[in-house]
Amino acid sequence: MTSSISDEKAQDTFEDVEHESPESIAYKKKEAALVWKLDLFIAPVMMMLMIISYLDRGNIGFAATQGMIKDINLKGTQLNVRPSSPEPSLCLLTRW
Fold this sequence. Notes:
Blueprint: H1 5-18, H2 22-65, H3 68-71, H4 78-84, H5 88-95
């Protein structure tokens, strides 16, 4: 009977686990669980921030073509400052 590549990988993984202490295995499991929980929290929040930023940039561009520049007396590149500046909430999340 021939062994497949996946069987060889499983055997290699099993051999690596044999040489590790129970404490290191428990630590790796806890670390993986923590990373998973953080990913489940951070990914949706960051996705919503990106969607809001995209919508904000689109709205500012559309408003500029409809006369917003004249209404609020923007000059030169003042219109470009807000869409290109980072979101305050994104700055706060990045610091963590």
